[in-house]
Amino acid sequence: MDHINKIMEDGQEIEPVYRKKRGIVLLRQVDDMIYISGHGPEDQITGKALFQGRVGEDLTLEEGYAAARECAIIILGALKDTLGSLDRVERIVKAFGLVNCGEGFTEVDKVFDGFSDTIADVLEERGYHARTVMGTRNLPNGNIPVEIEVIAALRP
Q: Cα angle at 66 between 143 and 21, to 5 degrees?
């Protein structure tokens, strides 16, 4: 099942990359569950936001989808880094996302699909998850467009 440790980007397989941040608990394992703090689309080495602004105002729906996809890649990298392999993920149980919305923007579910589609592409059925997504007007790190947190069940 090595193929699930890869993500396709521009027709090429890439490894998810994740870098630990000092002083912040980014995830917590309790028994066979792992709780992952909210992640935005940020460079994991520099912390610099890869996308900034409100979807529907500063960014298009497609850019919001790409930002949510980047969150999925970062979270998969965090899981792989922590667990050693994505094979240890039994399933993604729940995902919660906030979308930074421009005035009148209501398609938060379509933005969050960038995350859900990527998780399902990589983990297949193990990536199918319950989810909640909400719109907001402000997010950290220069007003990133999306932030996503995850709960996953682990294999022993």
A: 55
